[in-house]
Amino acid sequence: MSSRKKKSVISDLSFWERVWLLLGLLIVVVFIVGMLDPIPQDPNYHLFADQRSFFGISNFNDVVSNIGFAVVGMLGLLVVAGVRGREIFAASPDARPYLIFFIGLALISLGSVYYHLAPSNERLFWDRLPMSIGFMAITSAVVADRVDSRAGNGWLLLVLLVTGASSLIYWDWTESLGRGDLRFYAMVQYYPMVALPLIIGLFPRHRYTLGRYLAWAILWYGLSKVFEYLDHEVYGFLGHTVSGHTLKHLTAAVATFVVLQMLLSTKARSVR
Predict the structure, then answer these.
(1) Pure H helices in the chain
(2) Looking at the domain that runs over 3-271, which CATH code has it been given?
(3) pTM of the complete model
(4) Which of 138, 147, 156, 227 would be 247's cystine partner, CB 3.0–4.6 Å?
(5) Rounded CA gap, 13 and 20, in Å?
């Protein structure tokens, strides 16, 4: 089928038919996740490849590699809340999900440092909580820009943030009962990688969320998950210099920087 025919099929759908496609996908994913067996936290996850200490800092590389999140978070806050933000956003509510996204990034750097200094399930909660903020905020930003601004900048943003936090509270509670369950946090983390391309395809009109930037952000984040999974293998392959988890932090930070670049490109286009 040609791209022209594909566009014709999408354009023939009404707004609510497109919305119901998204909701239908969400219902299917929730059903499938609910049918899976509980997924406990693997205790071996905390045994990272690079456990070297420098300058009295445990797990030095995994700790300091979080600087990328702090830098992008602070730069993003300066852009969104500053003069440039007033040039980028057509209405002040449009900035809300991005403001929360960059706050989440700054908190990721703190939570991840706290976790990697002494890895444990208890500390991992505080590493993942700001991550859920970031996932949910950027998802809401795309919905606001392409589907419905009042929902994405308002009630849906709140619902998504509560959902993300609840998935971790549920995991922490089930771990305390000895039957940990990461299913719903996994959905919070991975579902946006499936839903965002679909939203972009179904709702092509946009102001801030350029598809090519979001595609690069998803690719960089996907690469970070590969590095995370191959932590020990990467560490051995690189001669015990840099581990996969350290590279995971750096490539994930690149993914967030792409989001900042996307906003700055919006300003550049509006100035022309």
Answers:
(1) 3-12, 15-35, 60-64, 67-81, 83-88, 96-117, 121-146, 149-152, 155-176, 183-202, 211-229, 231-237, 244-271
(2) 1.20.1070
(3) 0.89
(4) 227
(5) 11
Residue 73's CB is within 10 A of a number of other CB atoms, namely: 25
Helix/strand/coil (H/E/C) assignment for every residue in 87-145: HHCCCHHHHHHHHHHHHHHHHHHHHHHHHHHCCCHHHHHHHHHHHHHHHHHHHHHHHHH
Between CA 69 and CA 255 the distance in angstroms is: 10
- Neighbouring residues of 185: CB distance < 8 A, sequence distance ≥ 6: 128, 132, 167, 168, 170, 171
Tokens for 60?
């030095």
Q: What type of residue is 186?
A: A
Six token digits for residue 244: 């996969």
Quick: pLDDT tens for 106-133: 999 999 999 999 999 999 999 999 999 9
- Reduce the DSSP state of residue 57 to 3 states and report it: strand
- Computed from CA positions of residues 149, 155, 158, 161, in that sequence, does the dihedral angle turn out positive or negative? negative
- The mean pLDDT of 193-206, rounded to a whole number, is 90
Q: What is the pLDDT of residue 85?
A: 86
Place of tokens 């590389």: 61
DSSP state of 37: P
Task: Give the residue from 181, 53, 192, 40 showing the smallest Cα distance to 116.
Answer: 53
Q: Which pLDDT tens digit goes with each residue over 168-193? A: 999 999 998 988 999 999 999 888 88
3-state secondary structure of 203: coil
Q: Write down the domain spans for the chain.
A: 3-271
For residues 57 and 63, the answer to whether their CB atoms sit within 8 Å is yes
